[in-house]
Every structure is written in C-alpha cells, then in structure tokens.
Amino acid sequence: MIALSPRDIERFYARIKKSEQDDCWLWGSYHCHKYPMLWAQGKNIRAHRISYQLAKGPIPDGLVIDHLCRNRGCVNPDHLEAVTIGENNRRGIAYELNRVRAAARPRCGRGHEWTPENTHIRPNGFRSCKACQREVYGPKLKAKRRARSAAAKLAKKERAA
Fold it and tell me: Quick one: 22 and 87 in the same domain?
C-alpha cells in the first residue's frame, strides 16, 4: 500500500475534475498516451493506483488496475478494477482491434486459406494455421522422433549386451 502524507492526499484530490458527461474523474493534466502521475515519496506514482488504494485498499499481488471506462486519465475508483495482466490486455482496445483485423483476413501470413479444416482456435480466441504449424514444427518433430528412436535402439542394444 502506498503511504501518502495528508498533504499528498490533499494534492491528489485537488487535481481531480469531475466530468458531467460520463462520471469520469479526470486528472488535471497528463500526456494523452501516458497515465497521470502524482509526485509523492520522492517518485512519480500513477494516479489511478493512488485512487484505487485510497478507496478500496491495497492492490493484491500479481494484479494491475484496469480502467473499466477505457479512459487512462480517469481516477474514479468506481471505474477501476484490480485484474490480472492477461485480463487487462483482453479488455484493451488494441486487443479488440487486432482480433477484428485478424478475423477479416482471408489468409494467414504465409498465404494459407482460413478454412475450418486448416484453422485452430486458440484458448485466447485467436486463430492459428494448421498448415503453418506443420511446416514449422513438422521437421522439428520428425527430427526429435528420430533422435528418440535412435536413443531407444542404442539403449536396447546396450541392455542386450
């Protein structure tokens, strides 16, 4: 948990501007591609993490704070949720754009068609091309099998001798 001084907490709340359009609490000023920060304890601390901890307590280990409103400048604790990094990425805008773009392509990166017979759907929802998998991993698997078979034959000969 971040230990802020009363002065730091006062500075934090002084920079919040409550939006009347969408319930977001916007941080005073920040770069549009970065998260708003508060200088406290001799370092920059992300404002949404401060907001979450002041309202809901410590952030559990292994979790990150997700903006449910998709607005990085928002520090409204009702718009913040502690989730895993994977879940945060799945909820992200870039993730969805990539899924939509990938789904619209008629062929994989190596030119194979996306047919039901040639498509494997991964647990994360993305597709993988079975033909590409055979091309890339097929020779490697054959070499591994040959090596295992040769090692097994050698071991059998040694036991027999």
Answer: yes
pLDDT tens figures, 121-157? 888 777 888 988 888 777 777 788 888 888 888 888 8
* DSSP structure class, residue 111: S
Token pair of 42 as six digits: 């001799």
Element (H or E) spanning 129, and its range? Answer: strand 127-129
Residue 9, phi then psi, degrees to nearest 5: -65, -40
Same domain, 14 and 80: yes
Q: Tell me, rounded to whole angstroms, the distance of Cα 67 from its chain centroid.
A: 13
Q: In which element (H, E) is residue 128 found?
A: strand 127-129
Question: Could you tell me which residues come within 8 angstroms of residue 69 by beta carbon, excluding any fewer than 6 positions away?
Answer: 22, 23, 24, 76, 79
Tokens linked to 147: 């090596």
